[in-house]
Amino acid sequence: MANENHGSPREEASLLSHSPSTSNQSQPCSPKPIRLVQDLPEELVHAGWEKCWSRRENRPYYFNRFTNQSLWEMPVLGQHDVIIEIPVTPTGPSVPSSPSVPGTPTLKIWGTSPEDKQQAALLRPTEVYWDLDIQTNAVIKHRGPSEVLPPHPEVELLRSQLILKLRQHYRELCQQREGIEPPRESFNRWMLERKVVDKGSDPLLPSNCEPVVSPSMFREIMNDIPIRLSRIKFREEAKRLLFKYAEAARRLIESRSASPDSRKVVKWNVEDTFSWLRKDHSASKEDYMDRLEHLRRQCGPHVSAAAKDSVEGICSKIYHISLEYVKRIREKHLAILKENNIPEEGEAPEVEPRLVYCYPVRLAVSAPPMPNVEMHMENNVVCIRYKGEMVKVSRNYFSKLWLLYRYSCIDDSAFERFLPRVWCLLRRYQMMFGVGLYEGTGLQGSLPVHIFEALHRLFGVSFECFASPLNCYFRQYCSAFPDTDGYFGSRGPCLDFSPLSGSFEANPPFCEELMDAMVSHFEKLLESSPEPLSFIVFIPEWREPPTPALTRMEQSRFKRHQLVLPAFEHEYRSGSQHVCKKEEMHYKAVHNTAVIFLQNDPGFAKWGPTPERLQELSTAYRQSGRGHGSSSSSSSSSEAKDWDSGREQGPSREPHPT
Ligand SMILES: C[S@@+](CC[C@H](N)C(=O)[O-])C[C@H]1O[C@@H](n2cnc3c(N)ncnc32)[C@H](O)[C@@H]1O
Fold it and tell me: 58-63: long-range contacts (C-beta < 8 A, 24 or more apart)?
């Protein structure tokens, strides 16, 4: 029977000359893989199968571009559309050996016309911050397709307009009710926190949450009441801040309902501060700061109690507006499906209990036809426009998206939906980031390339638990949005992803509730799997007060080791890496980072943090990420360099001869 391609030697496998379809090769917008006339049943094509020619064996074979599986015989649908199949036995699953050595994706066929050359150049990355050739060692239980609705530019446009409105409502509520600007990133963190508990239908906006009042939004607003305490450099600033705080505390306690005792305490402390300010002219910056701290301690609880109802009101109002918006978005979405005679619930195929290497999220509902989007280049930036709304991505990352799509998408072999889907994806992340200067980028910063290389080499890491198609290093990763990102390789949100085995890196966005839920999730997985499982977690070492996630991981029975990377001595890659300039690609961390190894016993035996491995990781950290990019040895880059020449690179994906 058929064999899988387990590390067959690299072979120059240019199939071009054998392919009867080469007459089509100059179609610039149809970068189809090299394949023979496709006499395959439609379902097999949709499942990622294509028929290719083996020059070595001089006969056809079948290749699945999604799983990289190769067969000599025509595949039978349902039998070969996963990489491995292992019956679940009562004694527990056994985990397969590593999947096959990655094959370079089938080369598309470029012609020689000027348009083809232009296209080829567009899709050739010049800097590579990823290695999409590394295959996964993450094993999961086979799961059914997701019920989330397929993205559509019209729906995404409406969603983005409503999110902008919601952000504006939030700003106005903070200003009008509390006299403050919305705390920086608090709306973005609100979206992340809400998604931890949300059971609603929208991929971005919450609509079914318990509790209604978001603890993260409440905490962040409260923290800035009565005023935001910014970092102080000079004595005069400290004096002004103390004065402002005292005034704001008095104003607040007078204007809200508060107990007589609270009023008394606040007023007394405020008067005391004013008289100290009037008297003491020789105070230093530290004296003012001490006094401020004292005032905060005395008045803080009373001020918070007086503001509580109003702040809860803001959180609840924002949530309820979001709920209304979700209804409108869904109505629009369903109307588009109906227009195209697509049922809103996909067929639920029976899911067999078998173990498979993880694969991208599939959607149960078929995608409706896509409207046209326009694309043009401005210098090195690809601009994609739908109904006048422009999204941008650097050429480099555009080509990365193209590669990811090519690896992962199974319903669009002609790439006809590629551009509209890229538009939806970029628009989604634009909305998630926020509209302020540099907003959102702190939540998207990633480890430098050489750290990912070291994690893969030393600890077998092949998967990021928190990523996006824009910032992922591996081609397998979890991300916030299964609908837009699944076509680009996402395995869905981290908390919905339950591997039995594998080695993972986790660099979550800095949202306390999400980080806490992540720890619970990882501990549950580590407890229940008898197979090697390892998570290397990178989180800020916040100690004042310590975040629950950090404390819990430090006390976890699965903790094998903890490293601390000192502030300003290590770097991250910019959260805007897909649009920023090269010189802005890396930045120094302003906080310590804690690196924590959580592993079960088999995981520890396989990928344990031995002194030698830790030494090598520390050495990698001493390197700067600034030197990285085009120098990456990823074969994706070498492949990219060869696109023009029409030669296939990398290990052959043909089956072993039988
Ligand atoms: C700090 S960045 C990580 C960047 C890079 N992938 C890394 O691992 O270094 C966190 C990423 O997590 C994504 N994210 C947010 N919520 C998520 C969720 N529930 N599951 C998976 N990823 C999520 C964010 O969009 C962001 O891209």
Answer: 60/36, 61/654, 61/655, 63/35, 63/106, 63/653, 63/654
> How close is the Cα of 65 to the center of ligand 1, in Å?
26
Kindly give the number of the ligand 1 atom that is closest to the alpha carbon of 444.
Answer: 2
Structure tokens at 265: 């305490």
Give whole-number Cα distances, 370 to 31, 329, 418, 536, in Å.
19, 17, 10, 40
Average pLDDT of 141-163? 96
Unique residue bearing structure tokens 């050489």: 450
Q: Is 111 helix (H, G, I), strand (E, B) or coil?
A: coil
Q: Are 20 and 37 in contact (CB under 8 A)?
A: yes
Neighbouring-strand partners of residue 446: 573
Q: Which of 455, 479, 512 to mutate to test the pocket of ligand 1 (most atoms within 8 A of CB)?
A: 479
| Nearest ligand 1 atom, CA 432 | 25
- Give the H or E element holding residue 44: helix 42-46
Q: Using CB atoms within 10 A of its CB, is residue 161 exposed (0-12), middle (13-18) or buried (19+)?
A: middle
Partners of 504 in the beta sheet? 463, 535
What is the pLDDT, as a whole number, of residue 44?
A: 67
Kindly list the distances between the CA atom of residue 498 and the CA atoms of 299, 364, 491, 558, in Å, as whole numbers in the listed order. Answer: 46, 20, 10, 17
Q: How far is the CA of 620 from the centre of ligand 1 (A)?
A: 22
Q: Which amino acid, one-letter code, is at 568?
A: F
CA–centroid distance, 480 to ligand 1, in Å, is 7
Task: Yes or no: say if 136 and 462 are a contact pair by the CB < 8 Å rule.
Answer: yes
Q: Which helix (H) or strand (E) holds 168?
A: helix 153-173
| Residue 208 pLDDT | 98
Q: Is the pLDDT of residue 68 over 90?
A: no
Overall pTM > 0.90: no
Residue 557 CA, ligand 1 centroid: distance in Å = 25
Q: Do the beta carbons of residue 106 and residue 63 sit within 8 Å?
A: yes
Ligand 1 center to residue 467 CA distance, Å? 4
Length of the chain, please? 658
Burial of 451 (0-12, 13-18, 19+ CB in 10 A): buried
Name the residue with higher pLDDT: 504 or 84. 504
Q: Scanning the structure block, which residue is given the tokens 């590394």?
A: 134
Residues with CB under 6 A from ligand 1: 192, 195, 444-447, 464, 466-468, 471-472, 478-480, 493-495, 505, 507-509
Average pLDDT over residues 218-229: 95
